[in-house]
Structures are given as C-alpha cells and as structure tokens.
Amino acid sequence: MGVLGAIWGIAGVTILLLSAILRLAPRAQEALSGDLNTLQWIAVILWGLFMLFAEGYRGFQKKFSPRTAARVRYLKQNPTWIRVVLAPFFCMGYFYASKKTKIVAYALTFGIIILIVLVKFLEQPWRGIVDFGVVLGLSYGLISFLICAAKSLFAPSFNEAPEVPER
Fold it and tell me: Which DSSP string do the residues of 60-128 spell out, in sequence order?
C-alpha cells in the first residue's frame, strides 16, 4: 500500500505542475512570437531569470521539492488509507503536517489563486510575459521535484524532514 501511495503522490503532484505548465505555455508562446519592443524583451529576460531563481531554485529546489519528496518517502514507509487515497495532498502538506507546513501550503495556495486572478487582468504581451516566467519556474520546479522524489524512493537515506506532527 505504501508504494502505491508514493506513486500516486508523485503522479498527482506531477500532474498538477504539468497541467499548469501546459495551460500557461501557449499564452507565453503567443506573447513571445509577437512584436515585442526592447522594453518588453528586457522584461522577458529579467522576469524569466527572476522566476527561475525565486520560484524554481529558492521555492522549489530548496523548499517544496525536498519536503514533498520526504513526505513521499514517509508515505511509502507509513501508509494509511486516507494518506494513500489523498496522497498528492498529503505529499504537498495539506494534512498530517506540522503547523508551519500546513500554514505554508494553504497560504501559498491562497496567494497563487489571488495572483492568477490578478494576472488575468493583464493584456498581451504582458500577461504572456508573466506566464513565460511562471512556466520557467514551474518547469524547473517539476524537474527538481522528480529528482528529489527519485532520490527519496531509491537512495538508502534521504535527509530531508517530512515535517509530520510530532507524536
């Protein structure tokens, strides 16, 4: 049951990230294939670099990916029916997590929803430029998550904390 939960957790998180990438990429491509002026190209480059660093490296590689992968490993070793059925949500820290992890998971979700609503008010090419940076960050994040998840399942040890409640 633990292996099934781990696979479902990895698949669910992957589907979530990949679906966001695939939804945003066409709008980003539309903006980049248009006639951008110099200021807009500078914005593309700076925003892309910022999102690779802030979202991809700092957000995913340093925080989300190791913690989520540690929770995948924990789920494999400590399965329960509810954790296995809701594995993607468990792995992302929405339940059976430390108070801090749950606050971060829910606050980030709420913040992302607000940003999605706000970005919808931008017109092209600016909306596509924003989406381009998000696609870069999410793509980096997906790769870092899959690498961390593989390490958490196949390495003899994985030194990241799953941040579950103390017993």
Answer: IIIIIHHHHHHHHHHHHHS--HHHHHTHHHHHTTSSSS-HHHHHHHHHHHHHHHHHHHHHTTPPTTHHH
pLDDT digits (tens, 9 = 90+) for 49-99: 999 999 999 999 999 999 999 999 999 999 999 999 999 999 999 999 999
Q: Tens digit of pLDDT for each residue in 141-156?
A: 999 999 999 999 999 9
What is the C-alpha separation between 62 and 37, in angstroms, rounded? 35
Cα–Cα dist 112/130, whole Å: 13
Q: For 25-34, write each residue's pLDDT tens digit.
A: 999 999 999 9
What is the CA angle 18-21-26, rounded to 5?
135
**pTM of this structure:** 0.93
How far from 143 is each of 14, 62, 97, 114, 121, CA to CA, in Å?
A: 9, 13, 24, 25, 30
Using alpha carbons, select from 105, 81, 85, 83 the residue that is nearest to residue 93.
Answer: 105
